[in-house]
Write a structure and sequence with these properties.
This protein is α/β, with parallel strands linked by helices. The chain folds into three domains: 1-61, no CATH class; 63-129, no CATH class; 130-187, no CATH class. Helix content is 44%, strand content 11%. The protein contains eight helices and five strands; from the N terminus they run ββααβαβαβαααα. The strands form two sheets. A three-stranded parallel β-sheet has the order 3-4-5. α3 (73-88) links the parallel β3 and β4 (96-101). α7 packs antiparallel against α8 (171-179). The radius of gyration is 17 Å and the shape is globular.
């Protein structure tokens, strides 16, 4: 998918089995990531919750890790174990940002502070549940931050982006990208 007005490109690994990319040699993967870093201001890599060698190569190369966690007890407990493995392997905790994802209306049963206590790690942003807008955006291929910029879920995504850019080496690029995602207001 290409969204030229925003300068956003998406390369989807559709049809590629998740285990197939784990056969890439570490140096090949690092070379690919380096080329992407040279070409694009931001590269997002979707990883499984594993510390396999290929995942570790991506983690070693990344500037920030956004850990998306469902707001239910089993996923929070699994994420806590993943965070422990990361921290035990000396992954810098300042690179970790936890996005608490409300995957259904029942997600409200766990408060943000409770989730942080379970994880033993602070929550960066909570993504509110929107059972209509998010699936429609996925199915139509239209970013909800553009189609519905004032919705709580859109504000949460912008908040995460701004938090990621605030301490990064390229905040002006991020600010410029997400400025275009803000709703325009009449003067």
């Amino acid at each position: 998918m290409d969204v030229p007005s925003l300068g956003v490109m998406l390369l989807v690994a559709a049809g590629v089995e998740a285990h197939e990319w784990t056969y890439l040699p570490r140096n090949t993967l690092i070379s690919i990531l380096a080329q992407l870093r040279n070409r694009f201001p931001f590269t997002v890599v979707d990883l499984a919750d594993t510390v396999a060698e290929t995942s570790r190569a991506v983690l070693d190369f990344c500037d920030d890790l956004v850990l998306v966690v469902g707001a239910d007890l089993p996923r929070l407990q699994a994420a806590r174990l993943f965070l422990l493995r990361l921290l035990e392997s000396n992954f810098p905790n300042e690179k970790i940002h936890v996005l608490l994802n409300d995957t259904g209306p029942e997600s409200k049963n766990i408060e943000t502070a409770q989730a942080g206590a379970i994880l033993e790690f602070p929550i960066t942003v909570r993504l509110p549940y929107d059972g209509h807008l998010v699936p429609a955006a996925i199915n139509l291929g239209q970013p909800f931050v553009l189609s519905h910029p004032d919705k709580p879920v859109s504000r949460a995504v912008r908040d995460l982006a701004l938090k990621l850019g605030a301490g990064g080496s390229r905040p002006s690029v991020l600010a410029g990208l997400f400025k275009s995602l803000r709703p325009s207001r009449p003067a």
